[in-house]
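Notes from hallway chat w/ T.B., transcribed later so I don't forget. T.B. wanted the structure written out for a chain they're using in a teaching module, and asked if we could keep both sequence and structure tokens in one place. Agreed to drop them here.
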Amino acid sequence: MTKPTDTSVEENQSGAANRRAKGEFVRGVSGFRSVLGDTSFPAESGRYHLFVAFNCPWCHRVTLARNVLGLQNSISLDVAYPGRTGDDDPVGPSLWEFNPSRISTLTGAPLPECTTETGTGENFRLVKQIYAAEGSDEGSVPILYDKKTKRIVNNESAEIIRMLNSQAVALGADNPVDLYPDDTATRSRIDSLNDLIYRDINNGAYKAGFSSDQRVYAKAFEAYFDTLSILEARLASDSRPFLTGGTFTEADLRLFPTLYRHDPVYYIRMKLNGAKILDYPYLWRWLCRVYALPGVAQSNSLDHCRQGYFGRSWNNVIPLGPFRPMRYPEAYEHPSLSK
């Protein structure tokens, strides 16, 4: 298990309130950190449930792990609507809700992936109610939930994916690949990449897009594109298919959700308009290679991402592009688009 102090898992909280007051985006810390596989939460097929939102990249990590490991039949899943509640909601604004009949302003229809809440047996409308049942005021997703004891196991995505991997066989995985091989050298490479990717890419995108200080934004922008160049060079050095070599690992899984969103969403919404992933041929081909893995395309929806990110912007208008050289996500099926 990764430790809560691991900088590839969570951000340093030193002076967080003061940093936020000065315009910096500072991600909070998840409060539920139990271990899947211990005596309280033994690994059993059919016992556990995930609550996610497809627009959330931290949830995307978890749905990726579930699908890549072949856990779709042994871990059930509920999907929240990508837009939070509005000011007119009787409970309050900005809350994740399970509302499969809610109309997407992008498509003009309900989003077919959205579900009701089925994990607790209470048919809760709001994620916040799942936490309230345990006396917590948190409201984030993803959540790994134990249907047998009706308790939250863990709500830190980095720990959830590590636990799903380590317990995949006991959980009933159909395709128990190993995302974090028991090899010291490989784990060291994965850990180093995880730290870089979390700091400069995963969390870095939010530092750029949601900070209100120009200098903070500029620093995050520079680090994000510097790191893309580092990763591009890594892949180009020996034309390796994945970040650590010939095998898809946790490092690839953690990078994918951000790069999946970059061209169609983050380029505009997060003000990361320095370049597109299409401008990095090795990263583009890597992105397409991962997208082609079994279960990956089904682990998310760009309609949810567009609705969730742009639907919360100041005028709620969702951009319809890009459509050149090809619309997304169809573009991810064409590695040759980047020369």
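Follow-up for T.B.: The first strand starts at residue 48 and ends at 53. Might be a good example for the class.
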